[in-house]
Amino acid sequence: MSNNLYCASVPVFKQLLLALSDVLSKAEAHAVVKKVDPAVLLQTRLALDMFPLVRQVQIACDFAKSVSARLAGVEVPAYDDNEQNFAELRTRIAKTVALLDGYTEAQFDGCEGLEIVLRPGTPKEKKLNGRVYLLAYGLPQFFFHVTTAYNLLRHMGVEIGKKDYMGSY
To answer: What's 91's domain CATH number?
Structure first.
């Protein structure tokens, strides 16, 4: 029997991260054709108080790696947030996908009842079981940042559509 939380996480993270990598390639090509400084796209945001594109991609990767690691019961790997161009962002995505490829369904056995503590030791500390952590917290956070990255590029005129967002499935 397959593990539902593995199936609801790792393949989903991989699908959308690979699609995001392709979208970033299209954005880079768009910058060349339209003679736009790539830094303009990488630093674009829809509002002054939101993270720019580069940080949206970093956070999407962070949620994919941290949610999966916690559910698999392994230490969350740390990444430096120093990407400054499209190639470096795609490398970060590839590193995250490679990490996800290393997980097995067996590592997720019993993770539904695993206690995950968010913001431990702070007034915002919250304890969630593995199922709630993935379905009510991890996936929505991941989708938010992937969608925001997509929307930022679409807003900047990159010719992408729903098929680009979805990727291969």
So the answer is: 1.20.120.450
